[in-house]
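Researcher: Can you fold this with magnesium ion in place?
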Amino acid sequence: MKQLSTPPRRRHLRGWTATAIVLGVISMAGTPTAESAEWKSGIPWQEPKTIDPGPPGGPPADAIVLFDGKDLSQFEGGQQWLIRDGCAVCQGGGITTKQAFGDCQLHVEWASPSEVKGSGQGRGNSGVYLMGRYEVQILDSYDNPTYFDGQCGSIYKQSPPLVNVCRKPGEWQTFDVIFEAPRFDDQGQLTQPATMTVLHNGLLIQNHFELLGSTAWHEPPKYHAHPPKLPLHLQNHGNPVRFRNIWIRELKQRVTPKTEEIAEEGEDE
Ligand code: MG
């Protein structure tokens, strides 16, 4: 009679064989064996610089401190603002850094007035203008509705924040901004838009957003060719917003080693 099924003993052996293969694969994936070796990229990266990050909130050792609670001497127009209890309070007009910046990491601490006055865009309004023309909105957006691409943390009239993480009026808040300046060619044509990543109170609210141009109140966004570095501007919108602990780090493009260098270096590994 023809055998139609596998005998019990052979089924048993086949089961053990399958188990052994599975265990072997797991073993090879998890730990080095005589047959495998660690993979390394072989790219001859430069060693990353060691930077003292400073206390929580900074400033780190390689930052340019724009305001440390004492004076606004780093800003044109700084004498207009009131310095009180280690804070700078908006009044009189906007202030603009004496130094120009391009790609940067910026830390700003601010607080909207504890006494709530006005509503919508008229409540705790200020702003951080990268290159004097790309605004991250400062606004008291704690229980204060307004148009979404104008609320706190918006890239003004271009991108609402991903979430609203505004603290109560009067409480200190943080903005951490990673900004890449736009690039223009010799004819003034845009070759690379500006991008912004923003953390508000430590939470991501803008994720590498590509700006459509400057963030004007009265016209649609549009790029106008400008130098690779321009001053940073803090807005006075008529509300006594307070600032403290402002620092900035200039960012350099990292140079990736060329392919032929990779090949040559890799041969020695
Ligand atoms: Mg504003």
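Model: Folded with magnesium ion in place. The mean pLDDT is 88.
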